[in-house]
Write a structure and sequence with these properties.
PNPLA domain-containing protein; about 350 residues; about 45% helix; alpha/beta; PNPLA_dom; eight-stranded mixed β-sheet; NTE; lipid degradation
Length: about 350
């Protein structure tokens, strides 16, 4: 049976895929082809080159050290300059390009040990563009080019952006390539039906994740009876923003443990009806409600009271980070003094 591994997009939540992959590889499951969109293209490219437990552990170590600045080049001038000069992006891709270059030890897509397919989108036409050969780094830059955040990649007649805009979990592409069993590595979602959002972040983050998961729910209905479709269950109630890379180790651990438990219960079978599908407008369920007078908006003071613990936690993290930086600087100063003293003595 021809098996495809499908890695979804989701920025920092790509760490979830690494935890899942570690458990799947330990279980001895291997694919015949690998597909990836956005950050999934990076994970997929790394795994397709070294599809071993050693390779997965190297990928895990990369993610554990990753921070937002390694992906999003910090510069207040870039967005100002590009807005003022009718530019097409806000953040320089320099650090993302460096990250890809330093961590992927091959240059051509066709050099991968397992056939690799990288999904991007043409912003002019809305077409899905799938790279199966050529320059690996440029394909990933196109696949991960969040519109408006990173510059689009101009390749021939195509203007390419993040593949998640058209096919965030490219199940359909895997089927077109002949896959009979499709294993999806989803990013998860903040499924918290009993918890009201308390701030802007808790509105925007779920909105972003639901949007990315929307097509996965649609593809479930289209392909569940056409191929063996296996969706690895992600950790529940993810409360990490897609821009926050500092929680990668935590997400890897949660995804690994969840996948191990799922496998121990015979999960690597057709589990599709057990997967919680947000935004599933194609299900038989119809949620009819009566429109009533909404609750009044909370006062500014109430909002502050709700969010003060989070602000305090953020302040504590900042202070701890400042302390670490200060200690590192002090250690470097002491080392430099010792070196100068030794040079004078010599």
């Amino acid at each position: 049976m021809k098996t495809a591994f499908v890695f979804s997009g989701g920025a920092s939540l790509g760490s979830v895929e690494v935890g899942m992959l570690k458990a799947i590889v330990e279980h001895g499951i291997t694919p015949d082809l690998v597909l990836g969109t956005s950050v999934g293209s990076l994970n997929g490219a790394f795994y397709a080159h070294n599809p071993t437990m050693e390779g997965v552990e190297i990928l895990e170590s990369i993610w554990k050290q990753l921070r937002a600045r390694d992906v999003f080049t910090p510069s207040p001038l870039t967005p100002v300059k590009n807005i003022a000069t009718f530019g097409q992006y806000l953040i320089s891709p320099k650090n993302l390009r460096t990250l890809i270059t330093e961590n992927l030890p091959y240059e051509k897509i066709e050099e991968a040990q397992i056939p690799l397919y990288i999904v991007s989108a043409d912003i002019k036409t809305g077409d899905e563009i799938v790279f199966d050969k050529g320059l690996l780094k440029e394909a990933i830059m196109a696949s991960a080019g969040i519109p408006g955040v990173f510059p689009p990649q101009h390749m021939g007649s195509n203007v390419l952006v993040d593949g998640g805009m058209v096919n965030n979990a490219p199940i359909s592409t895997a089927v077109k390539l002949g896959a009979e069993r499709v294993v999806v590595f989803p990013i998860g979602f903040p499924y918290t039906p009993d918890q009201d959002p308390k701030n802007l972040g808790e509105i925007l983050i779920p909105a972003f994740l639901y949007l990315l998961n929307r097509q996965l729910s649609a593809d479930y209905h289209i392909y569940k009876d056409k191929v063996e479709l296996i969706i690895i269950p992600p950790p529940e109630n993810i409360e990490v923003g897609p821009h926050d890379f500092s929680k990668s180790e935590q997400l890897i651990s949660r995804a690994y443990n969840r996948t191990k438990l799922w496998l121990s219960k015979g999960g690597f079978e057709d589990n599709i009806d057990e997967f919680i599908r947000p935004c599933d407008v194609h299900s038989s369920q119809l949620n009819l409600r009566e429109s009533i007078e909404p609750d009044k908006e909370k006062s500014a003071m109430d909002r502050i009271r709700e969010n003060v613990p989070q602000i305090a936690h953020l302040h504590e993290n900042i202070e701890n980070r400042k302390k670490i930086i200060s200690e590192n600087l002090e250690n470097k100063k002491n080392a430099l003094k010792k070196h100068i003293k030794k040079e004078k003595h010599d």
